[in-house]
Design a protein that fits this description.
heterodimer; A: 208 residues; alpha+beta; Gyrase A, domain 2; Cyclophilin; 4-stranded antiparallel sheet; 4-stranded mixed sheet; 4 helices; 13 strands; elongated; B: 290 residues; mainly beta; 7-stranded mixed β-barrel; 2 helices
Chain lengths: 208, 290
Amino acid sequence: MKILPFGDRALLAEFSNLDQTMRAFRAFGVARAPGIIELIPAASTVLVRLDPNKLSLRAAEQWVTDTYGRASRVDTGGEVVDSNVIIPVRYNGPDLAQTALMLGISVAELISRHSQAQWRCAFIGFVPGFAYLASKDVDFDVPRRHTSRATVPRGSVGLAGEFTGIYPRSSPGGWQIIGTTPLELWNESHDDPAAITPGMTVRFEVDT
Amino acid sequence: MNQLNIVQPGPLTLVQDLGRPGLAHLGVGASGAMDRAAFALANRLVGNAPDAAGLEILFGPVTIRAEASVWVAVTGAWGNVSVEGREVPPHTATLIGQGEPLVLGAADHGIRYYVAVRGGIDVPLVLGSRSSDLLARLGPSPLVAGEVLKVGTAVQGPVALVDVVPVDAPSNSPVTLEVRPGPRRDWFTPESWRELLEREWIVSPRSDRTGIRLEGPALERSEQRELPSEGMVPGAIQVSPDGAPTILAVDHPVTGGYPVIAVITDEWLDSLAQVRPGQGIRFRLATGRG
């Protein structure tokens, strides 16, 4: 882990891979010190925002180092599962065949791998509720579309890089779309607006 | 129940409050009033609770009428502000009568006016806030001519009967903002870092609540790798592949994939709300270590 400066009210903890990043985010979330106001996970970093009236930058840096050190010592690899979400998917996306071709597998194989893997939400970005889901069960590396679409419909299930994700509402997008789900992923009138939050595990289920 | 009628919304009039801090892990940025101090002062002047929603008015001219008489206060940008031809001094509570037009002329200092109305603006809460977040598309849309807004009951105390609150007009001269190093400072050449701190940058007209774009020489990178997206904060100075710096503002995306060379310290963020296109910005490195 490396700690990088980020102005007067934040620090950026950087890790060498997604797995470490997700463990660190979990550990920071559990240990949450007073004065830590927000933790923002991403692919290889966790941004720690703090209230300087309650916690100095120096103290926050120490807290990040200690918390991560403790987590690395204690963590034996046994994974705690926050909660599990099942997403029904119709695998009928416009990029399904092309994506299978790029991965060098059949469409049936792509569907089977995608729906049998256990995915975990690493972070949310791009638009509210757009969860980046990663899995140790697959080794996809899918290039984004050369030209992004002006509108990707809400509920579209896509692949990009090592991630899968679901468009929580219609928006422009460049992910390879392999299917659609009728499940609502984002509703800002709920207290918990996002169906998937960082740390949750997710499975896709073939919906015929 | 009183109502405000937006007769003329100008280029961009938004409902804003203190925003939605703490939801970035769900992909929702804080948003909220861009000039927090001006917004807080406006609420205080009319005796509102600090979280009462008000109007953030870009530049003007704007005309607003109230259905019944109501106390209002105008802060932030300075310009010709009047009620039925009577001049309204900045930073004072003013009673406007039933149907009287409150007219905010084009701002001549700063660029964002804040209008608080006693009781606040009552629009539905979205994730705990009434703010318009234009990037995340949360909260009310920009106001349109003829739109009617309910006045709420978010009153906390009496109208402040001070004569004048001593706040200067936002400066139209070059402003100097304090920065600290960003996480990717070492992705840039030493010459670029010096350039950032030594020259005067010009605010681009393509600036908004998402970011303030700066015009000047391209900042050169020494590290050409692609950056995986990482968390962002308001005030982060991101540098796009063409070398142009952008200061992220309140409606910034919660994560970004351009390296951040420096970050404006919190106490200087409000001034970003008031810089005008073409105005100069200089950066000064903060001393000490928080």
